[in-house]
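>> received
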Amino acid sequence: MNSYKINVDSLKRNGDYVEITATLISDAPLNFPRISACFYSDNDNRILPMDLKSCDGFTAVAIGIFDIPFLFYNDNNPNNIRLAFLFSDANANNIIVKPEKDVTIPSLKKNDIKRFFRGNNRERFKFLFSRIASLLFLPYRRMPVKPNKVTFISNRSDRLTGNIKAVFHEMTKIEGIEITVLCKKGGLKTNIPNMFKFFKEYATSRVVFVDDYYHLLTLLKKKDDVKLIQLWHACGAFKTFGFSRLGRDSYLRQSSSNHRQYDYVIVSSKDVIPFYAEGFGVSIEKVIPLGSPRCDLLKNEQYKKQFKKKFYKDHPELEGKRIMLFAPTFRGGGMGNCNYPIEKFETDSLIKSLDSDWVIVVKMHPYLTERPQYDEKYSSRVVDLTSEYDINDLLLVTDLLITDYSSVIFEASIVGVPMLFFAFDLNEYSRDRDFYCNFASFVPGKIVMNTDEMILAIRNGDFKTELIEPFRKRYFDNTSGKATDNVVNFTKELLK
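>> returned
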């Protein structure tokens, strides 16, 4: 077991901000170190990322600048704030390291007026709109919470999908539970017409589930007797998100109220707990490794047989073929502001270089409009199923997954699908998006940088499949096939 110690080299106050410089010292060579600051008060705790300034063998130096009044969401007047550090390495192994001497930071009270004037126009608009929404919400705050009511809210689709769908279906089997659903795909503008319905459900439900960032939640202060649970739509943790992107593209300001009101966050395994706590800006105790409900069907043999039967009935032309599933993620900020450089996926070159029994099934990210281009003569060997099936289901008929930085790799590891990682822009993506771990040592498959490397790997069957099972065990613990029951039983306890 490696040992680590950390020294706080400097701690400088500048108005509301504190700048912290820390040096991590290891007894073994450091491999892709990542250091975050852990802040503790009597009633709350929070993790925030630091910038790695240097790494020289056994020593790493990190610097972070933090907004003291807005460190905590549930503790407005903390006493002196205690400090520790989260260290993780290339394989996302993580450990909390405390300085040899206790380090504390004097607290400061929040000043929303100061926050308003130092924000940009978008943040000022959100601040004002939040105040208006809070006033409109006042009559609903007086409505009593129904102890048996559970509400499912999503803006990812016009219907429930993934984790939240799996839990919903199981909850409907329980007698005496009142269930409501609010689904509308889109952002804040799209969901404003549903605002008053949202107010009612949010104010009167004992438990509320969400599966993504839901804009209307951030406008209001949650009632104490309402329990808000984040059933994030993806598994594991590998790309940084939320507050983990502090100082990078598409980052959240430390003072943002986004995500921080969750009472609980459900994750796939204990290994990813610190990263979800950091990304969502919540206390580490609120992140619970109950598993990924949407993945339970991947362990259900009867469901697998039924889906395969239906799939080949719908697409008889694919029966007996080897299916290559192309499922990349997007580049850019997110919904309405993203893209994929589709010209990089050279469909014609790929098809004509492989045996005739290979077909390409396309499953683009729902945010993307781009589709692979190909010669008409290859139309029988390229099938776009982006809008037709859930990607988990498609994994059940997949012989090879071609992806890049998509979290679909976690689900694919459960099924044991071989994977190739088409990471032609790895350096740029790492710089702009960043990872919680070193991509090259993390992924359960072979990395290829261009079409020629992809073709060679497919011809040789060189997919590094020996990496899949250790990866699955790490990121799902023993929850595979049990996650939905775990979440439902947890919810039943909250309803008591």
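>> Residues 113 and 206 are 33 Å apart (CA to CA).
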